[in-house]
Amino acid sequence: MCFRVKHSTNRQKRVQLWVVVLLLVSLFFFTIPARATESDGFSAQAQEGQDLYQKLKTGKRPQSEKTYETPEQPTVYLTFDDGPSKLTSQVLDILDKENVKATFFALGEQAEAHPALVKRIVQDGHTLGNHSYNHVYKELYSDFQTFWDQIQRSEDVFASLADTRPQLVRAPGGTYTNFDAYYYYLMDQAGYTIVDWNVDSGDSKRVRVPASEIWQTIKGSPLEHEINILFHDGSGHESTVEVLPQVISYYKKLGYAFAPLTTQVKPKQFPVGKPKWSRNMSLAHFQDLLKETQQYALAHVQTDQDQKDAELHLAQQTAVAREETAQILSAQAAVPLQVHVAGGSSFTIEPAEYQLRANRIELPLRFLIEKMGGQIEWQAEKKKANAHFGVYDLEYDLSARSIRLYTLGNSVATYSLADMDLQDGKIIVPLRKTIDLLGGRITDTVIESDKREVSVALRPFYMFKENNSILKNSLFAMGG
């Protein structure tokens, strides 16, 4: 009896030992795939980081998916760099008088010297942007870490003075040849929007640029649906203050509205050029910077209410701009347009026969062709118009939004998505582009509050009888 009990006990111990062994073996084999998966994850992440690093090293910029609001009215965004200074209060007074909102890319160093002006910029409804702390190129562009530290330092200044952390950043001197793909990418990862410009007023080309020169630069700049103008409100820019009312009046007369920049406005950005600064970005340094910028983004993510407030602000500005533009266009309605044709007769276009949109003159195709001595035929069932002028024939197809050009009966070109519209049974076309199609060009334009004149030069017909290729080289695209 005792033997049996002892035997049973030993057997039970052996079974327990085997159970323990089996559990340990199972645990070992189960942990191997988990460890392998974890290792593979780290390996894949490291490889992805290296691939991104190499891509940026070649100068390629990964573009993030963002949506922007396009204003209905042609809009000017006035921007002022390098302030605030003693001149900023004068700029703010002018903007207040003109009921115009603008954007101020301020320096942290200057903000500390003029705290009241920073507060006024925000309180008056303008946008405050970050322009670094001290504007010293050699420091800012020697290494991204220095640029980043200056942006953070200025941001802390703005937060303490006006309780705002600007997400719009303008690089001193602009991004071209100063930024590389690393700069762009890291700032984007942090949630900042980098803003350059598409019109440079020239007020900082040298010391004391005359107001007359700034004015000529502005007047000679191209007109786009959205214009971002670079001005400066730092010390020594008295000429900017002097010319500002004239600039505002000029764009208002052209039908432009004014608005401050926000993160909802598509930023003007220069392409990545070869950096003029000697710097080296190692993989380890890039990974450290990427971690730092991404942590900033997580700590400063906008709330839903912040986003709604920004959208509401933009909507309010758009409504004000639309009302102002309607008033301006209504006041301009009584000004006739004088057209002077070189070597030919001149004629007048009454206010009811044309419209001015952002300095682009639009008028009925039939009116223009017949005034210039041509003929036009309208095919209502096909929604097509055939215009004949000298050696040219233009076929306008409203359904396809295309224009086919013939010279001496030979097809020369077809333009898709052409500028044309049907209003009250009339085909409305842009004056300048139509003149271009007819082998001519506009040599001078005067658009003032009480005077509008256009001078037109037409190419002699006999030139095209000798060589039709001249025509092909002289045409301008009709799209866009």
Automatic annotation (TrEMBL):
Stored SUPFAM superfamilies: Glycoside hydrolase/deacetylase
InterPro entries: Cu_amine_oxidase-like_N, Glyco_hydro/deAcase_b/a-brl, NODB_dom, Polysacc_deacetylase_ArnD
Segments forming domain NodB homology: 74-259
Source organism, top-level taxon: Bacteria
CDD domains, alphabetized: CE4_SmPgdA_like
Record's protein name: Polysaccharide deacetylase family protein
Organism for this UniProt entry: Paenibacillus germinis
Source organism phylogeny: Bacteria, Bacillati, Bacillota, Bacilli, Bacillales
